[in-house]
Amino acid sequence: MAEEQQQVFEPPESFVKNAWIKDESVYKEGEDYRSFWAKRAEEMIDWYEKWDETLVEDPPYYKWFVGGKLNASYNCLDRWIEKGKGDKLAYIWEGEDGQVRKFTYKELHKEVNKFANVLKNLGVKKGDVVSIYLPMVPELPIAMLACARIGAPHSVVFAGFSADSLRDRMTDAGAKYVITCDGYFRRGKLIDHKTKTDEGIEGMDVKSIVVRRGGNDVNMKEGRDYWWHELMEKADETCEPEVMDAEDLLFLMYTSGTTGKPKGVMHTTGGYLVGAATTMKWVFDVKDDDVYWCTADVGWITGHSYIVYGPLALGVTSIMYEGTPDYPKPDRWWEIIEKYKVSILYTAPTAIRMCMKKGDEWVNMHDLSSLRLLGSVGEPINPEAWLWYYRVVGKERCPIVDTWWMTETGMHIITPLPGVTKLKPGSATFPFPGIKAEVRDENGVVPPGQKGELVITTPWPAMLRGLYHAHDKYVEEYWSKYGLGKFYTGDGAIIDEDGYFWLLGRVGDVLNVAGHRLGTAEVESALVDHPSVAEAAVVGVPHEIKGQVPFAYVVLRQGYSPSDELKKELIGHVSKLIGPTARPSDILFVDDLPKTRSGKIMRRILKKLASGEEQIGDTTTLQNPEIVDEIHRELKDYLNK
Ligand code: WT7
Predict the structure, then answer these.
(1) Which residues of the chain have pLDDT under 50?
(2) Atom 20 in ligand 1: residue holding the nearest Cα
């Protein structure tokens, strides 16, 4: 590493002066995690009834704030109005086309109440799962909060996912309702979302509510499809929030695991809200006059915790932006920051690397002096990108919080506290107060500086409560490798001599493409779904901007031969079945795949080959070692072409 990359960055004095958390005493307080989180639950959240027990540990299941009663939408909306903040902006939404819509807390409250009544009028009851398949429009948080208001768990499906992905998730969740839209804009192009939704719900007994965004012509099916705006016209403006139990399901979020089938991560009401609100306040150090912008899509956990529940539970003003960073020009983000005087920016390394590549001039065209804190999430940030972010975007004034967490954790787990932590570029630093983590391997905790796997050893309030209807899978994925009480994250990590955590990306069969999780098995099953494919193996290869991209090896069935057309068709097939993020960067047609004697595909070897590594390790346990040389040669020819 270059010398500057090993520099340690102290929090600027001016920042420390006003920070919520200024010293390390919170870590001490966190040592008793029960009393620590009980205190946070009192400070951050309004309860209808206080809990009887802070935590009931029954590994692998945990219950937080047992007996406590609350409503998430009340905590996000009503209480701010009651406290006289009703006219404060909750969201400033900017469309890709420059359209702007603003919502004060009062206005957002009104929309949420109305939509909650719309749902009730359509027959949605407490406990019914409602799927939401919307792009980045204000109706997305409105729909989520309306669900929370009436006690109907939501299951948001990222709008970029395919019709099949929607169908699988709705089926698994048993959802009878979906909220979708006509179309939306992506780089100036109108995307027909309704037709995709129709394909997904074809033949299912469901109702759909359609938001008008694109203005494109759509086919509305009588008795199944309803226009959002028509239902809203007639809806009553008050809907009392349902009194929910702390452990009632707030939402499901499907994420990729080691099998082809995505799993429904369960998050409940009380603990999740306490975790999201506490980290929102301490990690982003938000104050009443901040303008906060998290650039994620609400369709992922980052958007759930840090665009919807975290910010609203603290009464924050947030930006919500519909489009991509570089449309129409590479300065779109910096323009938005200048225009709205954004003070906190939370984004992903993949976007930072992309902006870095476009050149400093696009950033420097704008006055970014409103910024005071920067955040990063989704994948490891390389020190070079960290330093660029620090210097060019933050002008060396803004601490960077590199927050490590995952869908299952619901909230930040390993993260700096910006007024306390001395930063090392590329390290997510330390576990949040109240949380303990270790780096282990089969032989136990590994010594400092040595690579192992990250394990979380204390329960935390926003932790997942299970996988929907999949107990065995839940135990197998998280609590088997190192046993009960040691949450297996699936990430490689090192703790250095100073105790700093360095995250090294996913181990095993899950990829991280531009901050999005993708199972290699999902891509493989999409490939073998095509009539020409006999067998497929997918591995992650390094990519300059996206961090990782899928690379596929394909064995064709008899009667098919390799061609560029077929390659294109297969890539298109994956995109159709899963979504564009899953598109393999390339496909290599091979005669066979390296396998162990028991027939297991050796992806470790294929990964090394595709990444251009020369040392591929031991091949003697293979049933067909000769194929390795063959693939090696083929790849070399291919790459030289
Ligand atoms: C995986 C979780 C919750 C964030 C959005 C992705 C990787 C996330 C970091 C970080 C290094 C990170 C991990 C994790 N990851 N943040 N700051 N540094 N890696 O959520 O889809 O559930 O993916 O994202 O590999 O396991 P997700």
Answers:
(1) none
(2) 406
Residue 359 CA, chain-centre distance (Å), reads 27
- Residue at token pair 């077929």: 566
Measured in Å, residue 224 CA sits from the centre of ligand 1 at 38
Ligand 1 atom closest to Cα of residue 490? 26
Query: Which structure tokens are listed for 331?
Result: 């300065």
Q: Which residue among 304, 403, 405 is best mutated to probe the pocket of ligand 1, counting the most ligand atoms within 8 A of its Cβ?
A: 405
Q: Which CATH number fits domain 510-639: 2.40.50.140, 3.30.300.30, 1.10.10.10, 2.40.160.20?
A: 3.30.300.30
| Selection from 221, 163, 216 nearest residue 190 by Cα | 216
Token code pair at residue 594:
């390296």
Domain ranges of the chain: 510-639
Nearest atom of ligand 1 to the alpha carbon of 506: 25
* Torsional sign, CA 362, 364, 368, 374: positive
Whether pTM > 0.85 for this model: the answer is: yes
**Cβ atoms of 577 and 526 closer than 8 Å:** yes
Q: Which residues line ligand 1 (CB under 6 A)?
A: 255, 300-302, 377-380, 402-407, 428, 489-491, 503, 505-506, 512, 515, 517
Give 238 Cα–ligand 1 centroid separation in angstroms.
39
Distance CA 44, CA 71 (A): 13
Confidence (pLDDT) at 506: 87
- How far is the C-alpha of 426 from the C-alpha of 429, rounded, in Å? 9
Q: How far is the CA of 155 from the centre of ligand 1 (A)?
A: 20
pLDDT for 641: 62
Task: Please choose, from the candidates 69, 97, 302, the residue with its C-alpha nearest in 3D space to the C-alpha of residue 188.
Answer: 97
Smallest CA separation from ligand 1 atom 27, residue = 406
How far is the centre of ligand 1, averaged over its atoms, from the C-alpha of 159 (Å)? 20
pLDDT for res 521 = 86
pLDDT tens, position by position, 389-428: 999 999 999 999 999 999 999 999 999 999 999 999 999 9
Whether the CB-CB separation of 214 and 181 falls below 8 Å is answered with yes
- What CA–CA distance (Å, rounded) separates 300 from 292? 18
